[in-house]
Amino acid sequence: MTRTVRSDDGTEIAFETAGDGPPLILVPGATGYRAISPSQKQLAELLGARFTVFTYDRRGRGESGDTQPYAVERELEDLGALVAEAGGSAYAMGLSSGAVLVLDAAQAGVPIGKLVLYDPPFIVDDSRPPVPSDYVTRLNELVGAGRRGDAGEFFLTRAVGVPAEAVAQMRADPGWSVVEGVAHTLAYDGEIMGDMMSGRPLPADRWTAVTAPTLVINGGDSPRHMHTGSDALAALLPNARRATLAGQDHSAEPAVIAPVLEEFFSD
Asked: Is the full-model pTM beyond 0.85?
């Protein structure tokens, strides 16, 4: 059943829970939200045997509001409102850019007891080309001009690294409407990532307050730059462990990752 919590700026954030136990919040990356994320629902159900699992629509997606102007700080407040709703503290697992959102929330003082960060999409070396320096500006310009499909293509080719020929096939599929529907939020994730997809080292002072136990995970088949970025992140955090899930990619199978999360959060 969908419920809502009101963030500090009055935006209603839609969420639901599964299971019973210590609260655990799942934070999706770019484009993800509950109605189109069956794997997230399956993961919540698997973890529900040990935890009260919160899944939610980040602002601008699904059933959540989208008060303007956007600022990353508002998303940190959204996560804080969910943690408050959960009882004042919670565990959190972030996927892709959602992992960086979790990190920033912990740095801002949101009481997150343990963090799992899966495939944060940092580009810290020459493993792959960096995103354009005007990435966020161009996304906003495309959406503002009504070219939502082009914004989705720009995201997939320049940030994700999907070949243009593959994106052309995706655009011909009826499911492309989902990408167009959340195209305006792609710049939100771009702002969360900032210049951390530029090929330069991670900022050493960005997460100095994140001392909670943290597990940084990659899929064994995830792109190389995510492995090097995760190695760099784990080296910065004082209480971080590294793990790799063999045979998994950027979308880990719930049945594979659930036992890893259960063990870490129960330890």
From this structure: yes
